[in-house]
Amino acid sequence: MTRWLAAIGATSALVLTTAIPADAAGPREDEWWFSAWEVQQKVWPVSKGAGVTVAVVDTGVNGRLPDLQGALVPGTDANSGSGDGQVGASSDLEDSHGTAMAALIASRGGGTGYLGVAPDAKIMSVNANLSAWDKGIRFAADHGAKVISISQGFAASNGCRPEVQKAVAYALQKDVVVVAAAGNDGNGANSPQEPANCSGVLAVGAVDSTKRAWNQTQRQPYVAVAAPGYPVNTLLANGQVTDGVAGTSQATALTSAVVALIRSKAPQMPAREVVQRIINTTKDAGPPGRDNMTGNGVIIPAAALTANVPKNAPNPVFAAYDRWLAQNPQASAKPSKTKVPKSEATKKADQADRNLYILLGIVAVVVVIGGGVLLLLVRRGRKKPPPPMGPGGGQSGPPPGWGGQAAPPQQGGQPVPPRGGPSGWGGPPNPPAGGQGGPQGGGPYPPPQGPGGSRPPN
Hints:
Keywords: Hydrolase, Membrane, Protease, Serine protease, Signal, Transmembrane, Transmembrane helix. By secondary structure, this protein is an alpha/beta fold. It is about 25% helix and about 10% strand. The protein has helices at about 35, 40-45, 95-105, 135-140, 160-175, 250-265, 270-280, 300-305, 315-325, 345-380; strands at about 1-5, 5, 15, 55-60, 70-75, 120-125, 145-150, 150-155, 175-180, 195, 200-205, 225-230, 235, 240, 245. It starts with a strand and ends in a 77-residue tail after the last helix.
């Protein structure tokens, strides 16, 4: 199994930084994707991911770091079937992988100033290796995740394993979006990777700051979209920021953050429509039209949040899932809701709430009876009826605040100017993808600068 966080260059040194920006409301200068995606100007005024939980199926997350304080909800170690999925401090890239992905999604910036793209979202740490991916996916779907982010993979030339495919179908039927990394050896073996090759998974390739495909990103027909991945620094499990890394891991985490933004803004929007919206608001990259490195193009979060996407727009991810489902009708029944066991603290809180409700009920009865008696005494003491309400007789209709014109929706804080990096990738959404131009796999356009180089598999 490989976790898709690659060091750039076989002898590249690991650079650790802990600088905190002067303006804590904005991202660090080295988080160039904020500027490219115009996050502060066009995205955060619309959504920051509040109310959405993203399950990070990975090596576990260190939620005790200042940057992730308050970001985590209870998770699990799917490998053992117990625990909360969290891990301790580490400076190792592989051991820090889950923490790194969580930070890209929802870091609060409390320690290093490193911010996630969806900083108001919650993270569910699901520690799982390839033997437990199916269990991790099912746990996340059963415990409130609306997005499942999997920045892991292994060569799977025989297709997605049945148990993992069924777990993905289970999550989709519970209205969860599943996102996975396309892979990091596109300039080598270029093997299909699971779970990216599972039907219904939004598979993500990596691009650089100029929207060029990273030369190691996988060249596979399952690639649906692309997102920043070269180079994209991130947070280690020891609380320091690492430079000199790249991969479809980061592209996947950033895509999952965009999914969280959409699901926060439109909580009733089905997972199918969320994926359709992301695919049909991309900006073309590589050769004209769709290609096997960047799929339908680079994700543009502002467009995905606000553009008018037709209901009949292409949705190749769910089209593949629908084909699989037609061949596996036994998987079409919607899963039953799983009852999550309550902790002792929760049970005590529930009992306290019940006692409070009983007390309030008793008080209400006493108030009603007492009020009735008082009203009767007042009426008996009156010599004439009160003046009528309405025209000529006082105020009529509901008091202020009981209706009328609604206040305009809150649009969030004031945009903060970008702190460096490339100019935005915005612009009008592309027409539906599918043109024939250019060879598949990204042929003639130049790869980004840098030697590349992938980490060895675990």
